[in-house]
Amino acid sequence: MVGVVARRDDNKAAPITSKEVSVYDNGVEQSIRNFAPDPSPARIVLLVDNSLTIRADVEKLEQSAREFAYEIYEGDKLLIVGYDEQAEIVSDWTDDAKSIESSLKLFRKKGQPHLFDAIRAVVEEALRPQMGQKRIIVVISDGLDRGSKATFDQTLAELQTENIMVYAVQAVDRTRGAIRRDVPKPKVVIDKLAEGTGGQIFSIDEPSVAAKAICDELRQNRYVLSYLPSSAPYGQARSLLVVGNEGIIIRSKSMQQPN
What we know:
Elements: E1 2-8, E2 21-25, E3 28-29, E4 32-37, E5 42-49, H1 58-69, E6 77-83, E7 87-94, H2 97-103, H3 115-127, E8 134-141, H4 152-161, E9 165-170, H5 186-197, E10 201-203, H6 207-220, E11 222-227, E12 238-244, E13 248-251, E14 255-256
Parallel strand pairs: 5-6, 5-8, 8-9, 9-10
Antiparallel strand pairs: 1-11, 1-13, 2-3, 2-12, 4-11, 6-7, 12-14
């Protein structure tokens, strides 16, 4: 099963059906077993870079997180995690906006950003136990990683395996593009996290726009797609492409990782 975002480009509310969607696994069109709206509640992790050098002050980080507390739908839950060399829970799973707002004072800027390690920690410790739920990570960062043990490719593959969609509220690149060649550039990291998992990117300068758009989309435009691959070479990742008929916009993860 694959989580998909789908909407009509004229924003009409009529549900999209399987007859309006095609799926290609490793370039081969597949027979769709089911394609249905998924209005179920979401489990959303806000993963906030509070490392020393990020080009956003603590107040802006707080505001970016705060907006989500007031935009989530009934049944949704937020977990807020701040990270530098370690990932630490700022606010445990809750839908209590006032509780979330008071906990945001725990943000403090220090250390180096171990983004990839933080994502993997969140997947393994917070989201894997939520299997069967609609699971989302919103990265509030410029995308810089400096010192993680995990690589970017390992991190993206794990997200795709777990069917976790990543959105980004993107800060200004603190490196201004000046970074070692063997390290992925922050903007590339953000782009590939979103593209590779079916998410979307917003600016940290418009946190209210980001929070509303993401929460609305998760409740109104999420679908579950299921199909049985006609051929799935053992142990190999396969490209995935989900497309809609004219007038339909669809996003999904870009790879099916080996089972």
